[in-house]
């Protein structure tokens, strides 16, 4: 099934999580380990954009096919899109940015 998002919704197929180990300094002065999942994915579909109170439509900044870095959302909305479970974001504020390639063709 494919979904055509409404308003400012964006559907993103997240990449499989790769656990990255890091450490933080706690108030007691010790380091604790934590896992941070990789939060990159591919935009599958976008809505028409944000509608302002005055009725103006602000178009989305991402398009299907863009590779993006996504912040962890407090509320996760998962939907099936084209047979794959995807993340549905209610607005673009959870997208840090579009991943671009450097001159060597590597994501960076």
Explain how this protein is built:
This protein is an all-beta fold and 108 residues long. The chain is globular and about 45 Å long. It has strands at 10-14, 19-25, 31-37, 40-46, 50-51, 57-58, 67-70, 78-81, 84-89, 95-98. The strands form three sheets. A six-stranded antiparallel sheet has the order 8-9-1-4-7-10, with no helix packed on it. The protein contains no helices and ten strands.
Question: Gist?
Answer:
With 108 residues, this protein is an all-beta fold.
Discrete helix count: 0
Residues in helix, %: under 10%
Strand content: 35-45%
In whole angstroms, how far apart are the ends? 32 Å
Strand order of the largest sheet: 8-9-1-4-7-10
Q: What would you call the shape?
A: globular
Largest sheet: 6 strands, antiparallel
Pattern of helices and strands = EEEEEEEEEE
Instruction: Identify low-pLDDT runs.
Output: 31-36
In angstroms, what is the radius of gyration? 17 Å
Structure summary, number of beta strands: 10
Mean pLDDT metric: 80
Q: Structural class of the secondary elements?
A: mainly beta
Write the layout of secondary structure elements.
Blueprint: E1 10-14, E2 19-25, E3 31-37, E4 40-46, E5 50-51, E6 57-58, E7 67-70, E8 78-81, E9 84-89, E10 95-98
Antiparallel strand pairs: 1-4, 1-9, 2-3, 4-7, 5-6, 7-10, 8-9
């Amino acid at each position: 099934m494919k979904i055509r998002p409404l308003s400012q919704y964006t559907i993103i197929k997240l990449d499989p999580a790769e656990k990255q180990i890091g450490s933080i300094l706690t108030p007691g002065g010790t380091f604790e380990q934590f896992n941070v999942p990789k939060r990159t994915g591919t935009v599958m579909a976008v809505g028409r954009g944000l509608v302002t109170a005055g009725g103006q439509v602000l178009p989305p900044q991402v398009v299907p096919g863009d590779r993006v870095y996504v912040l962890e959302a407090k509320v996760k909305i998962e939907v099936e899109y084209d047979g794959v479970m995807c993340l549905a974001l209610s607005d673009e504020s959870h997208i840090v940015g579009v991943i671009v390639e450097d001159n060597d063709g590597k994501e960076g």
